[in-house]
Amino acid sequence: MATRILTTHAGALPRTPELTGMIRAKAMGAKVDEAQVEELLTKGVRETVQKQVETGLDSINDGELSKSNFMHYAASRITGWKMREYLQGQGPEPLSITARDRTKFTDYFRDGRGGFASGGKEGVAANIRRYECVEPLRYIGAEAMQKDIAHFRAGLEGVEGRTPFLPAVTLGVIEHWLYNEHYKSQEEFLYAIADVMREEYKAIIDAGFVLQLDDPDLADGWQMYPHMSVEEYRRYAIVRLDALNHALRGLPRERIRFHVCWGSYHGPHEFDIPLKDIVDLLFRVNAGEVSIEAANPRHEHEWQVFESFRLPKDTKLIPGVVGHCTDFIEHPELIAQRLERYGRLVGLENLMAGTDCGLGNRVGTPLIAWAKLASLVEGAQIATKKLGG
Question: Fewer CB within 10 Å, N- or C-terminus of the chain?
Fold first, then answer.
């Protein structure tokens, strides 16, 4: 049984501008010096692992340094799609994780303003890129996955007493940007994605790491379909979660972490679906750990959900007690207060301290990101003492 609150984070960590530029250029199809990319990744992952150890985090990863974003990373590991471009207003409208907010806050989103996870406010593109599935999907990411594993293993040399994890996207996230033009039904399409991504999930677990499943789709999909009622949306979500469990069949539950957020974009979030309406669905997944947003102003109050909802047996809750939505560095005492609320409801032994989402490039500078994580560790120590650990 745990005697203290362990600490972790949601995935993305800061990387150098040089590496960021090369990873983004590569994702957009530009030619880059692959040898230089490998050198920068090897060095960057080693430094990122060491920085997490020095900060005092218990469960650590590679910082997701090799990935530009969910879409580009997943697209590079799956084949069976084509990218088509449509002029603004002349093609199918893309789904938006801000759709419900846009119906009210039109002035905020006008002319393309209203940022996504990067935090910036983006201009309107001249055209829309649409990725379309046009033939059977196949996994082509084995080599890239093994490179990620190799970089992480090299970075972990000499590191002891830490639980290593690697993130991977879920099929619901892929469905957000990859449109089905091949399979007979959307459900058949989902299970095809599940079978493809299973290879990546299994590779991470076979490498000896915890698999973190990043699934903003479970919560932010609600914004994408403004016409749906809560019950209709729950039925939509259950189909996708059952397909995800199909991908996880036979994999050890205790080595799987499920991370959910509400999209992480910087914006109003007034119409986010409440946690109480989907909390049972979070624990439908075959995962021994569940990570949720719990620090931002729209969701911090939802610790109260666990006054009535009971965690399944042998399941840990990882509330985000440090946020990406502000450059303010949370005080350790505030973090401790947030953890105490959860600890008194779910038990210290069932609690880990985490972040709302990956801090990566979502806060002002790398120094701020690392300061937030240091405060997270200190706050967990304070809360542990107050909870009798």
Answer: N
